């Protein structure tokens, strides 16, 4: 039976996904890259020796540079870029 991606953050000390706070902004989780080179960068950046990074691990958006997570879809309508919020 295939295992599903975790619904909490793998980063050490992060509480995303463990605690539900009503009204808090939604925080996205990203699955581990399949590309081995990119996956190695994640492993080296997360510094976690107690638990290996596996295919079910996920990292929340709080651990990425602010500009690297797309929060909007951009559609071109009559030559104008129109932003539509994701989710």
Automatic annotation (TrEMBL):
Keyword tags: DNA-binding, Metal-binding, Zinc, Zinc-finger
InterPro entries: THAP_Znf (IPR006612), THAP_Znf_sf (IPR038441)
Signal peptide stretch: none
Single GO molecular function: zinc ion binding
Keyword Ligase among UniProt keywords: no
Keyword Zinc: yes
Protein name from the UniProt record: THAP-type domain-containing protein
Domain THAP-type: 1-87
């Amino acid at each position: 039976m295939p295992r599903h991606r975790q619904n909490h953050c793998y980063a050490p000390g992060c509480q995303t996904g463990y605690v539900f706070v009503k009204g808090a902004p939604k925080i996205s989780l990203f699955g581990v890259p399949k590309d081995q080179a990119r996956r190695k960068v994640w492993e080296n950046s997360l510094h976690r020796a107690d638990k290996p990074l596996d295919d079910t691990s996920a990292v929340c958006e709080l651990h990425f540079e602010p500009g690297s997570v797309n929060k909007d879809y951009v559609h071109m309508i009559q030559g104008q870029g129109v932003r539509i919020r994701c989710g």
